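In the previous chapter we treated chains in isolation. Here, by contrast, the input contains two separate entities that must be folded as one system, with a combined length of 223 residues.
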Amino acid sequence: SQQGEEDPQALSIQEGENATMNCSYKTSINNLQWYRQNSGRGLVHLILIRSNEREKHSGRLRVTLDTSKKSSSLLITASRAADTASYFCATDAINDMRFGAGTRLTVKP
Amino acid sequence: NAGVTQTPKFQVLKTGQSMTLQCAQDMNHEYMSWYRQDPGMGLRLIHYSVGAGITDQGEVPNGYNVSRSTTEDFPLRLLSAAPSQTSVYFCASSSLGGDNSPLHFGNGTRLTVT
């Protein structure tokens, strides 16, 4: 069964706008990770946030984690057409990382 | 650095046929895993391994076998292909640490079973 569920399923924005994707999960976690998948390719790791962290930044990415609500958000600022991809959250159990169904982001030039 | 290499990229099988999907990594990672990706379902874990000689089942192991004779290779065998196994298969690896390290993915094998 899926652990993480992303919301929305699809998001379409203009270049330069910010994109926010949300992830909810069901059980306690050690960390939560976000991945990106370009069409026809494997997933690429973006950022990891530990359960004792509330916010983390990496370049144009900002991730928040609220363990009391079992939710996380990924913000991409100043989006570019090249950010068009699917984005997945993943939560860990020991040796068993569970992925959601993803958010499909389209950034229009 | 090649990273995680999967072969073949595409495969068509008839129901009942068997085949092996290959996965190799050159990062000396202890952990390797196989996922399948179906529309609207995200990635589901099939089998994983934490080192040579050690394998375990994931969420959807039925119809698949794995072995890990070396650190580098982690093949996935379909014993008797069924149309329900039509999917995109991804192999991933990571180092093992105090908490999960990021997974490195191959580019997938697209399998169609007719």
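The first strand of chain B starts at residue 4 and ends at 7. The mean pLDDT of chain B is 93. Compare these points with the single-chain example from earlier in the chapter.
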